[in-house]
Every structure is written in structure tokens, then in C-alpha cells.
Amino acid sequence: MNTVGSIGTLLVSTLGTIYLMAILLRFLLQLSRADFYNPITQMIVRFTDPGVLLFRRFIPGIRGIDLSSLVYAILFQCAAMYALIFMSGYSFPNFGLILTWGLAGILNFILNIYFWGMLISIIASFIAPFSGHPALVLVRQLTEPVMAPFRRILPAMGGLDLSPIFVFLAIQIIRITLVLPVGANPAFVLGM
């Protein structure tokens, strides 16, 4: 790979990862019913509106789930993988393999968002438990629907919340069973 290809790969993977994260955050924040008027949510919506609104014309939402942003994220992942493969000088694999890698990459990216969101939420609960900072409020709103089922199952342990441990275990089990067997090439899949 030449210098131009290396710079192109760096730019596509970095900027593509940031944009894909914004698309997935939009999907997950809408799924978790986060505050739409949070300034960070507003920024994410404005940043991703052009592509999502284009897909929303053709793909309706189902029961409050914005399928247009999810389909947009999958297609963006596949397009970015094609661009990275092209810049690396490899021959293109068939679309089925690209789509499988893309779906595995999207699932892995969502798991990473929840992993880091949970970690931020845990640290913030020790450092600033009653903070009203928009970023921390958004992280809590994002992770609460994932932790709530585990909180219902586990009894209260004298002020200790053990549900994040089981969420981390669930994330790793999903990653081991659904993402790793696909064998996606991390050099081409965003978020891997």
C-alpha cells in the first residue's frame, strides 16, 4: 500500500468510525427513549439527519424502532468496508461476505457502545452521582434499559448494584457467540 492509500485508509477508518458511532447512537438513544432535547442528542440528530431522512422515506419505523437509521448504519458500514478494501489494493469479496462482516461489525460496535457507556456510568456514579451534566444524563438514559432487567432479577445487596457485572458478562457472551465466529477482518470493519 502506498502513502496515499495509507492516508486514505486512516481517514476513512477514523471519520467513518465517528460517523457510524453517531448513526448507532441515534438508533440506540431513540430505542432507549432518551431525552430528545439534550444538546448532545440534538447534535447527533443534526449530524446524521441527511442520511437517515433519506432512508426514512423508504423504510418505516416499527413500534418505535427507527429501522431507517439501522439500515443506514449497515449500508454505511458496508460502503466503508468496500472503500477500505479498495484503498488496500485487495480484490473485493462477494457482497454476502461484506454484509456478514458489516452486521458483525455493527453488533460489535453496539456492544462496545454499551460496554463503554456502562463503564462511564459506573465511574460517574462514584465521582459525580448526582451530576446533571448532559453527557452523563445521556449515558444513564442509554444504559438504564440494559441494566433494568438485571436489577429486577438481582436482589438489593446493601446499596451495591451488581447488575453491571452481569451486563458485562452478557456483552462478552454475545460477542463470543455472535461476533467472533464470523471472523470479520478487523482491518476493514469499522468498530472492530
UniProtKB/TrEMBL annotation:
It comes from the Bacteria. Keywords: Membrane, Transmembrane, Transmembrane helix. The keyword Mitochondrion does not apply. The keyword Transmembrane applies. InterPro entries: CCB3/YggT. One of its GO terms (cellular component) is membrane. The chain crosses the membrane at residues 6-29, 70-93, 113-139, 160-184. Belongs to the YggT family. This is YGGT family protein.
